[in-house]
Amino acid sequence: MSDQLLRFPEVIALVKKSRGTIYVDMKRGDFPMSISIGRRAVAWKRTELETWLSARPQSSAAHPPGA
Question: Which sequence spans correspond to the domains of the chain?
Answer without folding.
Answer: 7-55
